[in-house]
Design brief:
With 139 residues, the protein is of the alpha+beta class. Helix content is 35%, strand content 29%.
């Protein structure tokens, strides 16, 4: 007889990484695994990972100007029927260059997640997002 029991996944995920584009890819992989372990379906996992990737890439580019000496910290947790995410950096904001093919990160985050906010904290930026589990991003 074989018995299989799925272990409950931790309800909190923390991932800190150097401000480098290659590290954002590694963060996406780790976050995706955690979200799948929580039981999110493929579409919701994709949406959260894409929104968080946009926030993290903005921290890497605008907060640290690709200086891997800085760190980006991702915290995610599940409670009250939602996945909550906070992406922290301590970098100094640098306005993006005016390029028409760029600058869609915030719109992507807001389209994929139910709640998105941007705050200044400890000299850096925190992007907070929330998505109900099992429901669409739009109210």
């Amino acid at each position: 007889m074989l018995a299989v029991r799925r272990a409950l996944s931790p309800t909190r995920f923390v991932h800190e990484f150097p401000a480098s584009p290659g590290e954002v890819r590694k963060m996406r992989q780790a976050l995706s695994g955690w979200l799948e372990a929580l039981g999110l379906d493929h579409e919701q996992t994709h949406d959260v990972v894409l929104a968080v990737s946009e926030a993290a890439a903005n921290s890497v580019e605008h907060g640290y100007h690709f200086d891997a000496a800085g760190n980006v910290r991702l915290e995610a947790w599940a409670n009250d029927g939602s996945v909550h995410v906070a992406v922290h950096d301590a970098g100094a904001w640098r306005a993006p260059l005016e390029r028409p093919e760029r600058g869609r990160g915030r719109a992507i985050m807001e389209a994929l997640m139910r709640d998105v906010s941007f705050e200044t904290e400890n000299g850096g930026t925190v992007v907070r997002m929330r998505l109900p589990i099992g429901g669409p991003a739009a109210p």
